[in-house]
Amino acid sequence: MRKVAATRRILADAIGHFDTDDGWSMASHLALSALIALFPFLIFATALASFLGANAFADTAVHLVFDTWPREIAEPIAREVTNVLTVQRGDFLTISVIFAAFFASNGIEALRVSLNRAYRVAESRSLIMRRLQSFAFVLIATMGFLAISILLVLAPLVARIAEREFIWLAPYMGTITLWRYIIASSVIVVGLVCVHFWLPAGKRRIRDILPGIVFTLVGWVAGSTIFATYLEQFSTYVSTYAGLASIMIAVIFLYIISVIFILGGELNAAIRRYREARARIGS
Q1: Which stretch, 114-128, 166-180, 221-235, has highest mean pLDDT?
Q2: Which of 4, 114, 204, 234 has the greatest CB tally within 10 Å of its CB?
Q3: Which long-range contacts (CB under 8 A, 24 or more apart) does 84-87 make?
Q4: Residues 6 or more apart from 202 whose CB is under 8 A from it?
Q5: pLDDT per residue over 221-252, tens digit each?
Q6: DSSP of 72-113
Q7: Domain limits at 104?
Q8: How many structural domains comprise the chain?
Q9: What is d(CA 60, CA 149) in angstroms, rounded to the nearest whole number?
């Protein structure tokens, strides 16, 4: 009974703070910021990859970003993203690419604001420091995608060598698509840990952020599955929004995962408040 009471108290605290602190509006802000930041980030990352000689980056980036999205949501967006990324560009250091990096960093800032509210902390770092950190996140994400792109390009060669040297591996060599899902999922988990750990003001331990991360991952799987099922069986978006259907679907999908993401931060904050209250009573 004690655990049930504690769970109810934590959930009431998390959901109550989410509602009273404009969580629904923050989710809208985060969803729109994510959509606006997505194309600029991929453009910047592809331009940097091309500058460094990694011309196969665009296809890998699309897989890494969209492989974990439901097919009904990902296919139309991924197709447009691929069209954008395959446009030939000139010099890497152009005004458009610099602006792309700036707009991509705005998505990081939206994450920061959302988590600061969820964790109930006031930002003490300067504007310059916050913006530099956001640019660092964009650059690190780009270099991570670039490294994975190179690994996936080398993967077929390594697989052929392994199959030739170890015949018993042959039945397992057709699982490259599975590895793409595994890598994309790993990128999401690592990204969530980094975002919760470093973006909000203040300091947290890994144990302080794990419950919210687990909640976010489970919630994303459940939410995207339900929304994809709805689109497949009951959706009237195509008839209602015509050519805007794909963008409306993406906005609503990003809104759903933004709500779940913010609730993950709220859950972490509520658990921490409960532990601190128990510690005060115990002392």
Answers
A1: 114-128
A2: 114
A3: 84/39, 84/42, 84/43, 85/42, 85/43, 85/46, 85/58, 85/61, 86/58
A4: 119, 121
A5: 899 888 888 877 765 655 555 556 677 788 88
A6: HHHHHHHHHHHHHHTS----SS-HHHHHHHHHHHHHHHHHHH
A7: 2-282
A8: 1
A9: 6
